[in-house]
Amino acid sequence: MDMSYFEFAQARYGVTAFNTANPTDVFPVGSTVLKASWRVVTPGENTTGMYTTTADIAKLVNNPISGGNVLASKELISGVEVALIGMHVVSVLVDHPEFAWATFELASNSPNLPEGMSPSSSDPVSDKSSTFYAAGTPANQCNVLADGVHVTVDEETQICSPITQVFREFEFGGASSDRAADIRQVNADFHEQLPSHAVNDSRLDAVFAAYHLVGTVWQNAGTLRPGLNEMDKTAVGSVDLMNSTMETFVQGKGSSCFSCHNTAGNEESKGIPYQAANFGTSHILLGPFFGD
Ligand code: HEC
Predict the structure, then answer these.
(1) Which of 89, 106, 83, 91 is nearest to 212 (CA)?
(2) Chain centroid to CA 238
(3) Whose CA is nearest to atom 20 of ligand 1?
(4) How far is the CA of 279 from the centre of ligand 1 (A)?
(5) Over the stretch 170-183, which tens digit does the pLDDT of each residue have?
(6) Which of 47, 68, 242, 292 has the smallest set of CB atoms within 10 Å of its CB?
(7) Nearest-5° angle of CA 184, CA 192, CA 84?
(8) 69-108 per-position pLDDT tens digit
């Protein structure tokens, strides 16, 4: 996050600070926050076209409770090579205190669901394999949360079973065709120009040309207020925006970032109540209410 996001969030962080802040306060213009997804690189794998780094990650272990799912242990595996596969980039623009919600992915993560194919179709999504998709897997066997299925891990290789096959339901987050054309153009320009700019600017890394914008979703100017729990219904732009690596299981028509990031409070529900507030779109600020 940048400093303006940090300072605004810090002043409202915690159960009391959040609930006593003015609910109509908004993050200042320019406030920016990112969330990234990574995967472990297979030893010997060619990582051209991916941003990689090393990380210390929690070791996955089998649940000692019979039938229980895999757990992240306290033990860290250090120096693991990981590749960036997805990134959410969220910023407050002038007149848009709800933030503009954008997401980026590697095209090679997963295939796009072909236009006109139902997510519940028994037809294969693609005859080509992707990182998270095995060629020929029918649509209705993808994006399925192993609900009630016992997920285990080979503690040696850290590979879980069963593996979820993934498709990207909306190539451009459900944007209308003219907006999809804009997204295509932005990507083409970025991919073409970044490498030459990177040669002369040490702050830029040409490898990011491999990542492309799926889409951006926002609200009409002047409409943000506390207590909006259906912001996905009033969304503008890529109204079905999801990242196939981060929102794999919740992709669907009419669902977007705003299905979870909104200004509704939870006075009605169990748990620690939090007030309806414009800044409730930030899940960092909601963390303390969920024990984070
Ligand atoms: C199913 C609910 C859900 C959806 C849909 C969702 N998010 Fe989130 N998001 C979360 C939760 C929960 C967190 C808190 C951190 C975590 O658990 O990773 C979060 C955290 C974030 C963060 C870090 C800052 C913050 O608010 O905590 C960003 C940025 C973000 N999401 C962007 C997006 C974007 C962009 C989309 C749409 C493409 C999206 N999210 C869709 C639930 C969701």
Answers:
(1) 106
(2) 14
(3) 283
(4) 14
(5) 999 999 999 999 99
(6) 292
(7) 80
(8) 899 999 999 999 999 999 999 999 999 999 999 999 999 9
